[in-house]
Amino acid sequence: MVRSVVERIKGLLHWNILDGYILRKFLGSVVYSIMLLMTIIVVIDITENLQRFLDNNAPMSAVVVGYYFNFIPYFISLFIPLFTFISVIWFTSKLSANNEIVAILNGGVSFYRMVLPYLVGAVIVAAFAIFLSNYLVPRTSRGLYNFKETYMQQTSMGRSNIHIKNSDNSYIFVEHWTKTDKIGYQFTYEELGEDMISYRLSAQRIEFDAENNRWKLFDCTERRIVDGKEFFAMYPTKDTVFNITPTNLNQDVYVSEMMSSSELRKFIKDEKAKGSTYVDQYIIEEQRRWANPLGTIIMTIFGLSVSSRKTQRGVGVHIFIGMGLAFSFVFFQQISTVFSVSGNMPAALGTWMPNILCAILCVFLLRSTPK
Question: How far are the Cα atoms of 31, 49, 80, 93 from residue 37, in angstroms, in the given order?
Fold first, then answer.
């Protein structure tokens, strides 16, 4: 069944031996670069964290399975456009240096037809990257987080300045929330009337009573306006119910990395309704799961355009140029993310901006590449 589908696709694409040769070179180079670069990254990480593993008595099996088996998919997903770009630069430069590209073009194959196996390879890598970022990495991120909590003492200790929408006309503010103790400080609950705040409940400290599913407030004051008259009361303690739980207060910017795509979409919708201050960062995570994989296609054409020119200085020039462009791409990704988080640029646009600019640059490079 699968073989017949593959043969049908080959027929539609007019696939030939040369296309298969280039595709094998492409995929082999991608796998080789991922293995090589991930080996370097893992070795560097081991040298940085080995003492911490020993200090926290982390078993070898937990380090290998709980940490590195979860660590590696995350970094592959994060940097797969760069791995693809470097791979294309490497093997295309070798084709160019060996006059294979010149021979292909002299054989009557147009440059744009030669791009076809590159695009097929890029689509295969992009499909793999989509699977990683949307399904596998959220699961491995949970395992990595649990390992760090258990053995590396990296549990988030709390959050500050939390604003949450409790209902259509009521809001909650907590100045500081400690995740480990599940205690909040400087709590305020407000209900809005037609043109003013009609009710305000403040407390120095709040705790959640999980057994009764209620909140306990300490040293609280209550102000209520009824028919233009203000009523004031003070309580040493007060039990009440809100539409939030400690889970809402525990959430930080990293919680989105541990959700599947469907969970993340629903989570963003709920957080928008609550007025969460982290919504833009959640949107960035959602868009990154698609921008990164599709960026492999753009970076493939980008790499082909740069490295298909034959130079007298050999492969090293192409690799040098490619590494410079790769680091520039990563740098611009960080800059656009910062602008998105700060609110100077829409979150979705900031995530896609590096891909958009690279795609525009690809068009100019393809037009100027010797054919």
Answer: 10, 18, 11, 19
Q: What is the pTM of this model?
A: 0.77
Q: Do the Cβ atoms of 207 and 215 come closer than 8 Å?
A: yes
Other CB atoms within 10 Å distance of the CB of residue 106: 9
Say which amino acid occupies 82: L
Question: How many whole angstroms separate alpha carbon 303 and alpha carbon 323?
Answer: 10
Q: Please tell me the distance from the alpha carbon of residue 127 to that of residue 125, in angstroms, as a whole number.
A: 5
- Answer whether 91's CB lies under 8 Å from 184's CB: no
Q: How many CA atoms lie within 13 A of 320 on its CB side?
A: 6
Residue 114 φ then ψ, to 5°? -70, -20
Residue with tokens 């043109």: 195
Phi-psi region of 20 (alpha: psi -120 to 50; beta: other; left: phi over 0): alpha
Q: Which residues does residue 12 pair with via DSSP β-bridges, in sequence order?
A: none
Contacts of residue 299, Cβ cutoff 8 Å, sequence gap at least 6:
81, 82, 84, 85, 88, 329, 358
Cβ within 8 Å of residue 193, ≥6 positions away = 225
136: confidence class by pLDDT, cuts 50, 70, 90: very high
Give the tens place of pLDDT for each residue, 65-112: 889 999 899 889 988 988 898 888 888 888 877 777 778 778 777 777
- Give how far the C-alpha of residue 92 lies from the chain's centroid of Cα atoms, to the nearest Å: 29
211's tokens: 């057994």
What is the 8-class DSSP label of residue 191? E
Considering only CA atoms, give the Rg of the chain. Answer: 27
In angstroms, the CA 293 to CA 151 distance is 32
CB 296 within 8 A of CB 129: yes
